[in-house]
Amino acid sequence: MKNRYYFEQSHLMGNGCVYFWKLSSELYPILIYFNHHKEPEIVQIVEGILHLYVDNQDTILHKGDIAIINSGQLHHGVKEGDKTCIVNVYVLDLKELCTGNNVSNGPLFDSLYKNKIWFTPFLDPSTTGYNEIIDILSSMEHLWKTRQPAWEMQMKSLFFGLLYIFFSHSDTLLLNHSPMDVKSYDKQQKMQKLIDYLEQHYQERITVAEMADYLYMGADNFYKFMVSLTGESPITFVNHFRLLKAVNLLQNTEMSITEISLSCGFPNISYFSRCFRKYYGCTPRQIRLNAKKE
Question: Environment class of residue 179 by beta-carbon count within 10 Å: exposed (0-12), middle (13-18) or buried (19+)?
Fold first, then answer.
């Protein structure tokens, strides 16, 4: 069977300075699932069209486009249509980068690190510095694939080079951080709180009532909140969250499929397999076999 959904998670650097994911899907629409983190994230469209939702604002990205998700922003990405979409994702850990270095003395770096300024959210081929950024991202991916001698040091050098491009074109590639309006901020905070809750409890039985109570919302209002923000019912959202955990375990561990289904919070392997087929169009075993072929 053709691999219609593919998920690869690979660290570019052993010291956690840069993390790299290549995500590809022909069938399953959600490529980047709801998440938030302190580290800035670069999303590069390799093929296809991606709807990237950042703080509930939709940006349509085409091949060659680059989006940058800044610290703490809630985001997810959905591919358009039935054609394959491939994206490269780079998560940049500024804290790890400056550990043991004196680079944080610069005013631009300090402002970026303290979240006072942000990276510009969108770059295309007409953007100043675009070609230089593409070259560095391509070098990062190549370096990870080849693992040349002293590749970790080379990777850190590329990271500094990437920051240098943003700093040298700060008038177009950096911007002041403007706080969002109170209503949008409240929605974002609730969603971030829910994701953090699921990270801690996805292996357990979770009910709609428990999630609603955790956010101090009534069950009906919570259901409407989830549908309006994610387009999914609460239970569907939880199942998607668990399935992503399961895919990672299928590709990166030797755990049995039964062990994985139970460790990800599914009550039995039958329900796990049904959900898997529904969302990915294949079985857990096929995902594991495809991962071994890579």
Answer: exposed
53 φ, ψ (degrees, to nearest 5): -100, 115
Structure tokens at 242: 């668990």
3-state DSSP assignment of residue 272: helix
* Residue 150 belongs to domain with CATH number: 2.60.120.10
Domain ranges, residue 235: 182-293
Last residue of a domain, one of 145, 161, 176: 176
Spatial distance between the Cα atoms of 86 and 73, rounded to a whole number of angstroms: 22
Q: Are 111 and 143 in contact (CB under 8 A)?
A: no
pLDDT in tens, 126-183: 999 999 999 999 999 988 888 888 888 888 889 989 999 999 999 999 988 766 666 7
- pTM score of the predicted model: 0.77
CATH of the domain at 251: 1.10.10.60
Q: Tokens 């392997």 label which residue? A: 269
Rounded Cα gap, residues 13 and 40, in angstroms: 16
